[in-house]
Amino acid sequence: MTDGPWLVVGLGNPGPQYAGNRHNVGQMVLDELARRTGASFGGKGGGVLSRKPQAAVAEARLGTLPGGAPGPRVVLAKPTTYMNVSGGPVAALVRYYDVPLEQVVMVHDELDIPFADVRLKRGGGEGGHNGLRDTSKALGTKDYVRVRVGVGRPPGRMDPADFVLRDFAKPELKDLPWLVDAAADAVEAVVLEGLERAQLRFHTKS
């Protein structure tokens, strides 16, 4: 681990009309992490990067190390651009905060994982996820950590693009707080314990 902070990014679309969409579950997880750390999101981080803020940013210490010391420094970020152009804000934050690429964590919705499951990986394909694709292009690498939050497959012949832009269904809403909490736990595990140990915890079917 280096002295640079971790950058944890929650992907989604800006605006209240998208806030409850499946595509915005990554930002829901970031809100939970901010709540846990007592941090508040603002436009400051984006504002110092460009004339127009492109991310809501909160800086904090995440978790507690053995012995009771505060956990590592983290920059929590929610891009304020649309999903398919997330890469620019992410790359700007990496440069500004001097974040090692191995300490970049992207939290996002995943169609190929059943609803309420959480999976972790580093690198690999983007699975048709436009936010990840643009991030990989902007960073010049796919070798960053992904916290993949399962939202399930669309029913019948529904277009996946339409599915992720819909709010969670009523039967899912009762389990959504648990899912967001589990994904936030997964982020903490990655930062505090490392990816491999976190995978051992979260890849075991409960």
Describe this structure in words.
This protein is α/β, with parallel strands linked by helices. The chain has one domain: Rossmann fold (3-Layer(aba) Sandwich), CATH 3.40.50.1470. Helices cover 35% and strands 18% of the residues. The chain is built from eight helices and six strands. It has a six-stranded mixed sheet, with helices on both faces. The chain is globular, with a radius of gyration of 16 Å. It starts with 5 loop residues before the first strand and ends with a helix. The relative contact order is 0.19. About 4% of the residues have low confidence.
Topology record:
Layout: E1 6-10, H1 25-37, H2 44-47, E2 55-61, E3 73-79, H3 87-97, E4 104-110, E5 118-122, H4 130-139, E6 145-150, H5 160-164, H6 170-173, H7 176-193, H8 195-202
Site (Stabilizes the basic form of H active site to accept a proton): 109
Subunit structure: Monomer.
Keywords: Cytoplasm, Hydrolase, RNA-binding, tRNA-binding
